[in-house]
Amino acid sequence: MARRRLSEAIRWQIIGMHATGASFKAIGRQLGYHYTVISRLVRKHRQTGAVKDRPQSGRPRVTSEREDRAFLRIIRREPFSTSTVLKRAWLPNRHLSTRTVRNRLKAAGMAARRVIKRPRLTDDHKRRRLAWCLARQRWNLRTWRRIHWSDESRFLLHVTDGRLRVWRHRNTAYTPRNIRQTVPFGGGSVMVWGCISHDCKLDLVTVRGNLTGDQYMRHVLEPVVVTHFDNHPLATRPVYMDDNARPHRSRAVVDYLQNNAVTTLPWPAMSPDLNPFLPRFFFFFFFCVF
Fold first, then answer.
1. SS3 for 22?
2. ∠ CA 80-81-82 to the nearest 5 degrees?
3. At what angle are helices 65-77 and 83-90 packed, to 10 degrees?
4. What are phi and psi of 201, to 5 degrees?
5. Tens digit of pLDDT for each residue in 249-269?
């Protein structure tokens, strides 16, 4: 906790009270300071005849506490701004460095971090999500164990990362060992589908190109999902969960699931966070662990 600084007026008041015979503890109780603070100030006055602090070592701050508070209000309004933009918005008529801006952010406990992206939710989305959760808040473990959670994710065949850096000497940018070769449009992609439940995991399915309703039936539902569900008695058959992606909700897919007695879990739109099957995380474990 930062110490309270004594104003010059308070310091002279302390000196005056002590000159009238008041004790250190009496002065401290009246003004709200510890008696050792009073004694140090009186001793300094006896030795130097002054009450001001000596000049502090180091470079003085270029901004006041009031200006720092104004800066924090700006960053709360514009959290995505760069340090250069914040510097201009903060004190446009003052020559400040971006390092000063970063120092103030650091002092406030802030740091530049990766932005979490989430689907934009309308009020209707929020109401439907809440209703979905409330309708299932009393489900027991036995009911949840029947749910088979599925999802798919797209992977580039040649991953490119614009944040890649290379340690090199000057004028060696085009040296072959310093060049990262790229493929137009990522070199193609592959769609990977997976499904898990409390007790099992189904085989991964890879689909080249875009996933259509017909491919979803031929490559995913028929050989994997329906085959797995047929191995369970009708009374205890699992419940299949997939999201509202267009291939999942085509008329042909809906009819196919109904004709094969596959019960599906109703799913609110824009709700990937409600699915415990985090695709990239589980795909990594499917490939590398199991």
1. coil
2. 120
3. 130
4. -135, 145
5. 999 999 999 999 999 999 999
Which residues touch 212 (CB under 8 Å, ≥6 apart)? 247
Q: Which residues pair with 190 in a beta bridge?
A: 155, 208
> Whole-model pTM?
0.61
Q: How far apart are CA 17 and CA 184, in angstroms?
A: 81
Question: What is the rounded CA–CA span in Å between residue 135 and residue 153?
Answer: 28
Distance from C-alpha of 39 to C-alpha of 32, rounded to nearest angstrom:
14
Please, what are the averages of pLDDT over each run of 10 residues along the chain (290 residues)?
Answer: 70 90 91 90 88 74 87 86 86 86 86 76 94 95 94 73 67 76 66 88 86 93 94 85 93 95 93 78 53
Break the chain into its structural domains and give their ranges. Answer: 8-48, 65-107, 128-288
- Residues 195/243, Cβ–Cβ less than 8 Å: no
Span 200-239, pLDDT tens digits: 889 889 888 788 999 999 999 999 999 999 988 877 889 9
Domain 128-288 has CATH 3.40.50.720: no
Q: Among 242, 241, 236, 238, which Cα is nearest to 228's? A: 238
